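User: I'm putting together notes for a lab meeting next week and I want to include a structural view of one of the chains we've been expressing. I don't have a solved structure, so I'd like a prediction I can at least talk through. The sequence is below, exactly as it appears in our construct file.
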Amino acid sequence: MPIRLEGKRSLEIKTLKGRSIVPGHCRGLALVSIKPISLLGGVDPNSGLIIERGHDLEGRSVKERILCFPYGHGSTVGSYVLYSLAKRRLGPKAIINQTADPVVVVGAIIADVPMMDQVDIKQIKTDDDVKVDCGKGIVTIVRENKPCT
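Assistant: Thanks for the context. Below is the predicted structure for the 149-residue chain, given as structure tokens.
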């Protein structure tokens, strides 16, 4: 739904529905992957950087981002990696998945990171302004369009 502001620019606001996994709400910039993420071995717990070779987010930081990816994979120790990231203030503000994975869910619970799944993450782009409301099961995307003439 485009909204024109002062004839100079427009905003597109998109609302996606999902299922709340861990309660909470926040707003931030999205970091979106088309690939699953392994928290153990795929994310450096000392920096928050994606270190998995060949991953589409390799070299990017999860810190303070709304981390969007299809699902997690890998060892159950990954839950503790997410917890460690959160304790060091290097973790994501929220996690949005297409399908919740038990390792990511447990990590989000113990790290108190808001989490949702059953969200069409293909609708979200990296650096979109995203508001997550797990209480209502809603993800709101606000995207600025090119200036209108």
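A couple of points you could mention at the meeting. The mean pLDDT is 92. The two ends are 18 Å apart (CA to CA).

User: Perfect, that's what I needed.
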